[in-house]
Amino acid sequence: MERKRAVVAVIEKDGKVVLGKKIQNSQGTLRGEWHIPGETVEDSETDEQAIKRGMMEEMGINVDVVGFVASHTTPKGTEVNWYLCKTDEEELIIGSDLEDARWIMLGEVSTVAGELGQSLWPKEIQALFEKM
Protein backbone atom coordinates (compact mmCIF):
# COMPACT_ATOMS: atom_id res chain seq x y z
CA MET A 1 0.00 0.00 0.00
CA GLU A 2 1.27 3.43 -0.94
CA ARG A 3 1.94 5.94 1.81
CA LYS A 4 -0.67 8.71 2.24
CA ARG A 5 0.53 12.10 0.95
CA ALA A 6 -0.55 15.64 1.75
CA VAL A 7 0.47 19.14 0.74
CA VAL A 8 0.43 22.39 2.69
CA ALA A 9 0.17 25.81 1.02
CA VAL A 10 1.81 28.83 2.63
CA ILE A 11 -0.17 31.40 0.62
CA GLU A 12 1.40 34.87 0.81
CA LYS A 13 -0.01 38.17 -0.49
CA ASP A 14 0.97 41.71 0.47
CA GLY A 15 2.69 40.73 3.72
CA LYS A 16 -0.10 38.40 4.85
CA VAL A 17 -0.64 34.63 4.92
CA VAL A 18 -3.93 32.68 4.79
CA LEU A 19 -4.88 30.67 7.87
CA GLY A 20 -7.96 28.48 8.19
CA LYS A 21 -9.77 27.35 11.31
CA LYS A 22 -10.97 23.75 11.27
CA ILE A 23 -14.51 23.03 12.44
CA GLN A 24 -14.36 21.95 16.09
CA ASN A 25 -16.25 18.68 15.54
CA SER A 26 -14.41 17.71 12.32
CA GLN A 27 -12.27 14.63 11.95
CA GLY A 28 -8.55 15.13 12.14
CA THR A 29 -5.77 16.35 14.33
CA LEU A 30 -6.20 20.11 13.94
CA ARG A 31 -9.94 20.41 14.69
CA GLY A 32 -10.80 23.77 16.24
CA GLU A 33 -7.33 25.19 15.51
CA TRP A 34 -6.07 27.92 13.22
CA HIS A 35 -3.62 26.35 10.78
CA ILE A 36 -1.86 26.75 7.46
CA PRO A 37 -4.18 25.12 4.90
CA GLY A 38 -3.39 21.74 3.41
CA GLU A 39 -4.92 18.99 1.36
CA THR A 40 -4.62 15.22 0.95
CA VAL A 41 -3.16 14.30 -2.44
CA GLU A 42 -5.52 12.08 -4.43
CA ASP A 43 -4.24 9.03 -6.35
CA SER A 44 -3.33 10.48 -9.73
CA GLU A 45 -2.65 14.08 -8.64
CA THR A 46 0.63 15.93 -8.56
CA ASP A 47 1.34 18.06 -5.49
CA GLU A 48 0.59 21.20 -7.50
CA GLN A 49 -2.76 19.84 -8.69
CA ALA A 50 -3.71 18.91 -5.11
CA ILE A 51 -2.81 22.40 -3.84
CA LYS A 52 -4.81 24.13 -6.58
CA ARG A 53 -7.85 21.87 -6.01
CA GLY A 54 -7.62 22.04 -2.24
CA MET A 55 -7.28 25.80 -1.99
CA MET A 56 -10.24 26.29 -4.32
CA GLU A 57 -12.33 23.83 -2.25
CA GLU A 58 -11.31 25.17 1.17
CA MET A 59 -10.65 28.88 0.56
CA GLY A 60 -12.34 29.64 -2.78
CA ILE A 61 -9.13 31.02 -4.27
CA ASN A 62 -6.82 30.23 -7.16
CA VAL A 63 -3.16 29.93 -6.20
CA ASP A 64 0.13 29.60 -8.03
CA VAL A 65 2.81 27.37 -6.53
CA VAL A 66 6.04 29.37 -6.23
CA GLY A 67 8.27 26.63 -4.86
CA PHE A 68 8.90 23.71 -2.55
CA VAL A 69 9.93 24.67 1.00
CA ALA A 70 10.12 21.52 3.13
CA SER A 71 8.84 18.02 3.81
CA HIS A 72 8.09 15.97 6.91
CA THR A 73 6.32 12.78 7.94
CA THR A 74 3.46 12.94 10.46
CA PRO A 75 3.22 10.63 13.48
CA LYS A 76 0.61 8.64 11.47
CA GLY A 77 3.07 8.19 8.59
CA THR A 78 1.67 10.73 6.10
CA GLU A 79 4.30 12.37 3.90
CA VAL A 80 3.64 16.14 3.90
CA ASN A 81 5.20 18.54 1.38
CA TRP A 82 5.13 22.29 2.08
CA TYR A 83 4.97 24.88 -0.72
CA LEU A 84 5.13 28.66 -0.90
CA CYS A 85 2.20 29.92 -2.98
CA LYS A 86 0.89 33.26 -4.28
CA THR A 87 -2.55 34.54 -5.26
CA ASP A 88 -4.02 37.71 -6.70
CA GLU A 89 -7.29 37.11 -4.88
CA GLU A 90 -8.27 38.53 -1.49
CA GLU A 91 -11.78 37.28 -0.74
CA LEU A 92 -11.82 33.92 1.04
CA ILE A 93 -14.88 31.68 0.74
CA ILE A 94 -14.66 28.98 3.39
CA GLY A 95 -15.16 25.35 2.47
CA SER A 96 -16.88 22.46 4.19
CA ASP A 97 -14.37 21.58 6.91
CA LEU A 98 -13.51 25.15 7.96
CA GLU A 99 -15.44 27.47 10.23
CA ASP A 100 -13.32 30.52 9.31
CA ALA A 101 -10.43 31.65 7.12
CA ARG A 102 -8.57 34.94 7.08
CA TRP A 103 -5.47 36.80 6.05
CA ILE A 104 -3.00 37.16 8.94
CA MET A 105 0.02 39.50 8.99
CA LEU A 106 3.23 37.49 8.56
CA GLY A 107 4.56 38.57 11.94
CA GLU A 108 1.41 37.32 13.68
CA VAL A 109 1.16 33.84 12.15
CA SER A 110 3.02 32.11 14.99
CA THR A 111 0.78 33.78 17.61
CA VAL A 112 -2.51 32.93 15.80
CA ALA A 113 -1.73 29.41 14.54
CA GLY A 114 -2.51 26.66 17.04
CA GLU A 115 0.27 25.10 19.08
CA LEU A 116 -0.43 21.57 17.84
CA GLY A 117 -0.18 22.66 14.20
CA GLN A 118 3.01 24.57 14.89
CA SER A 119 4.52 21.54 16.59
CA LEU A 120 4.23 19.75 13.22
CA TRP A 121 5.93 22.53 11.22
CA PRO A 122 9.28 21.50 9.77
CA LYS A 123 12.21 23.70 10.86
CA GLU A 124 12.27 25.34 7.41
CA ILE A 125 8.69 26.57 7.90
CA GLN A 126 9.48 27.88 11.39
CA ALA A 127 12.49 29.71 9.91
CA LEU A 128 10.36 31.06 7.05
CA PHE A 129 8.01 32.81 9.51
CA GLU A 130 10.88 34.03 11.66
CA LYS A 131 12.47 35.80 8.69
CA MET A 132 9.24 36.98 7.04
Describe the protein in words.
There is one protein chain. By secondary structure, this protein is an alpha+beta fold. The protein has a single domain, classed as Alpha-Beta Complex (Nucleoside Triphosphate Pyrophosphohydrolase), CATH 3.90.79.10. It has 4 helices and 7 strands; from the N terminus they run ββββαβββααα. Strands 1, 2, 3, 4, 5, 6 and 7 form a 7-stranded mixed sheet that branches. The longest helix has 13 residues. It is globular.
Number of DSSP-assigned strands: 7
What is the H level of CATH, i.e. the homologous superfamily? Nucleoside Triphosphate Pyrophosphohydrolase
**Tally of discrete structural domains:** 1
- Can you give the mean pLDDT? 90
**Could you tell me the strand content as a percent range?**
35-45%
Write the CATH fold name: Nucleoside Triphosphate Pyrophosphohydrolase
From the helix content, strand content and strand pairing, which structural class follows?
Answer: alpha+beta
